[in-house]
Amino acid sequence: MLFAGLLVLATGAVAQPALILELGGKADRSFNQAAWEGATAWRKRTGREFLEFEIANAAQRELAARRFAERGANPVVGIGFPQASSIAKVAREFPKTQFAIVDAVVELPNVQSFVYREHEGSFLVGMLAALASRTGKIGFVGGQDIPLVRKFLCGYEQGARHVNPKIELLSAMTGNTATAWTDPLRGAELTKAQIAQGADVVFAAAGTTGLGIMQAARDAGKLSIGVDSNQNHLHPGFVLTSMVKRVDLAVQAAFDGVKPGVTALGLKEAALDYALDEHNAKLVTPAMKARVDAARADIVDGRLKVIDYTVANTCR
Questions:
Q1: Is 107 left (phi over 0), alpha (psi -120 to 50) or beta?
Q2: Could you give the 3-state DSSP secondary structure of residue 104?
Q3: pLDDT in tens, 219-257
Q4: Between 20 and 30 A from 280 (CA), which of 63, 103, 214, 237?
Q5: 3-class DSSP state for residue 100?
Q6: Cα-flanking dihedrals φ and ψ of residue 298, to 5°?
């Protein structure tokens, strides 16, 4: 019964693109929402409809991909690295169907893999964290402890130390399984512990768990940093900035037409940035902005190198 709606929607929907959202769904105000907004922007631009499904458990990843392919959806786009194995398996079964995956690489002739240089965007918000900190201590709470999340942490640390070599960084991961992305209570606990140790800015790189991280920072009168979507509006005046990851660009590109191979996106492609709007304008001074913008230009031009943790699983 769970897939009844999907099957009804997909019947007769030849060549409609399909979007498979990860745990947390399109209302996570973060990663999945960014993907869904890309799909809706594509619909507005083209006047065409798309299919969507929000998985509720791991078993649904492969099932959703296969059902969409069977019903003629094209392309089928999986959001998030946990969908890599299911996209790979189903793409082999349906070689004439185009697929795309975000945050993972699937090396097949009918799959486009979108990956991001998250360390570049994290470097910028790390700079802002160090510039805004009054205690000289900043925090980081990640979701699942995997190389991708440590890539965020590594970039964040480099950016902070670029501003203040003596900055103290407190870091924690929410867990080792996929549930780490959907545990706001645990995120809040970890944030409170870092604040108790003196952290006054905490980067929430944890999906839906981040909502608890940001709430805990707000309750303590401290600053947080959002991730993926612009989350500045969630706690105006208490969200220093957000490390925006333009997953929407990947979804729109895939919906427009899959180009098999690996597509890497970063600052140069305007696919990452820090968010500045009316909700945090008083927190980011002109001097802070100028310094971070200069670093962004240096990274884009190659004058400033940022270590990618995932290259050798080290931040050195």
A1: beta
A2: coil
A3: 999 999 999 999 999 999 999 999 999 999 999 999 999
A4: 103
A5: strand
A6: -65, -35
